[in-house]
Each structure stands twice: as structure tokens, then as C-alpha cells.
Write a structure and sequence with these properties.
There is one protein chain. The chain is of the alpha/beta class. It has a single domain (6-243), classed as Alpha/Beta hydrolase fold, catalytic domain (Rossmann fold, 3-Layer(aba) Sandwich). The chain has helices spanning 47-55, 80-91, 111-122, 145-151, 161-170, 177-180, 202-211, 232-243; strands spanning 6-13, 16-23, 31-37, 59-63, 99-109, 126-132, 189-194, 216-221. Strands 1-2-4-3-5-6-7-8 form an 8-stranded mixed beta sheet, sandwiched between helices. Helix 2 crosses helix 3 (111-122). The longest helix has 12 residues, at 80-91. The radius of gyration is 17 Å and the shape is globular. The two termini are 24 Å apart. The mean pLDDT is 96.
Length: 246
């Protein structure tokens, strides 16, 4: 089935239409494919990673959770893992023969890493997970209304700062990455963090690594910030090299 290397896609999750883009490498043979998960609100969407993976011969999917960046529904933290599961369902259909359903990976940044670990811990369709600048325990992070109004809710329609804070406080009632990461083994986990992260302390990734089981890898960049803004080439190359093993 000929393709032009990328295509807009949509799929259903909980009765809502979620929007995204599928990046397809050259050729119609089945290939390793990754779902790239952005954080909250998702300013950094990691398109450079998707382009690099495609040039390296792999596919990837970037989509938007319900209630953000044009996807239908109301944004809630607790439904993000469901949306990731729906994205896996989408890739496992026969619509795109270029997708090797036996080699599906999750790559998550920040809250996307939270979702990647939670989903990979129980969904065996996921063959491995990459967590970038990810929280081990969201209960250790506290936000004010001012924080939410400045940094999050302007990009999340119909979500007030108070709604955001209430939802965040409920995250501690869900399963936690620090408790679930060990369940991914014997599938591999790659954890990356910047020591200059101004949002999530690097100690969070260290704790994730300590609680993970083999095979596990922890890579820390001494100068990178939360989004690896000035160190994207390093971030992309580390993930690409890790995928070379598979």
C-alpha cells in the first residue's frame, strides 16, 4: 500500500474522536513502531523524534488525548491510559500493513512517561517503554491555582485551574509508576532525564530505575532541562540507538 511517509489519522476512545499523525518509514514491509506520548499540556510534542525514527526505518504515531489539541471530549488524567490503549488498538488493526504489531513500543515525555509506564505494565502488546523526564510518584508534586492558570489550563479547554488541581490530587489514588514499573520486565525499559530539569527532579527517574527490573537502562544528561530543549540531538540519538537492539 503506497504512502507518502505521513498521514493524518483519527480513532475512537471512549466514544470520542482523537486526532493524530502517523509517520511511516519507506517501504511496505512491517516495521517496529512507537507511540509517542506528550505531557501536560503538551507544548513539546516530540515531532523531531518522530521524523528521526522514520528516517531510521521505523514508524511512529503522535496523537492527542481527549480534550486537548483538537481531540474530542473532556481532558482528564485518569482517561489518558485508556486513550493510549485505544491508540494501541488502532495500530493493531489491519489498516496499515507497515505496522509490525509484534514490535510496538511506547515513548512518553513527562506525564506521557507516566502513562507509558502504567500502560506497559499491564498491556503485553507493548514490547518496551521509554520514559523521558517522568515522575515516579505524582503525589510528591503540588500545584497552586496560579501554577495551573499559567502553565496548564490555557491549553486545556473547559478545564479550570481548580479542576486541574483536583484531578492532580486524585492521581495518587491510581496506580503509580514507581510501583508499576517492575511489572514491565522482562520487556525492556529506557529511562532518560536531564540533571537541570526545572519541573521534575532527576531523583524521580533514579527511583524509577531502582524499582524497575532488568532489562533496564538509565541515561542522565548533566545539562539538559525538562524538555531537553538544547539537547534534542542527544535525546533522539539515545532513543534511536536503544531501538537498534530490536
Amino acid at each position: 500500500m503506497p504512502h507518502e511517509g505521513q498521514t493524518g489519522i483519527y480513532f475512537d476512545s471512549g466514544g470520542y474522536r482523537l486526532l493524530g499523525m502517523l509517520f511511516l518509514a519507506r517501504g511496505d514491509n512491517p516495521k517496529l513502531s512507537a507511540i509517542i506520548l506528550h505531557g501536560v499540556p503538551g507544548i513539546e510534542k516530540n515531532f523531531d523524534l518522530a521524523h528521526s525514527l522514520r528516517m531510521h526505518g521505523w514508524n511512529s504515531l503522535i496523537f492527542h488525548y481527549r480534550g486537548c489539541w483538537g481531540s474530542e471530549g473532556r481532558y482528564t488524567f485518569k482517561t489518558i491510559p485508556d486513550d493510549v490503549g485505544a491508540a494501541l488498538d488502532f495500530l493493531c488493526t489491519s489498516s496499515y500493513p507497515q505496522i509490525d504489531t509484534s514490535r510496538l513500543f511506547l515513548i512518553g515525555h513527562s506525564l506521557g512517561g507516566w502513562a507509558a509506564i502504567l500502560v506497559a505494565s499491564h498491556d503485553l502488546r507493548v514490547r518496551g517503554a521509554v520514559a523521558i523526564a517522568t515522575m515516579a510518584d505524582p503525589r510528591e508534586f503540588h500545584f497552586t491555582e496560579q501554577d495551573a492558570a499559567k502553565n496548564f489550563t490555557p491549553w486545556l479547554p473547559d478545564l479550570t485551574p481548580l479542576d486541574f488541581i483536583s484531578q492532580w490530587q486524585e492521581l495518587g489514588q491510581f496506580t503509580l509508576p514507581i510501583k508499576e514499573v517492575s511489572q514491565i520486565s522482562p520487556r525492556p525499559v529506557l529511562i532518560l532525564h536531564g540533571r537541570k530539569d526545572e519541573v521534575v527532579p532527576v531523583a524521580q527517574s533514579v527511583r524509577l530505575f531502582e524499582n524497575a527490573k532488568e532489562p533496564r537502562t538509565l541515561l542522565i544528561h548533566d545539562k539538559a532541562n525538562h524538555s531537553f530543549v538544547w539537547h534534542r540531538q542527544w535525546l533522539v540519538s539515545q532513543i534511536r540507538d536503544w531501538f537498534d537492539r530490536f
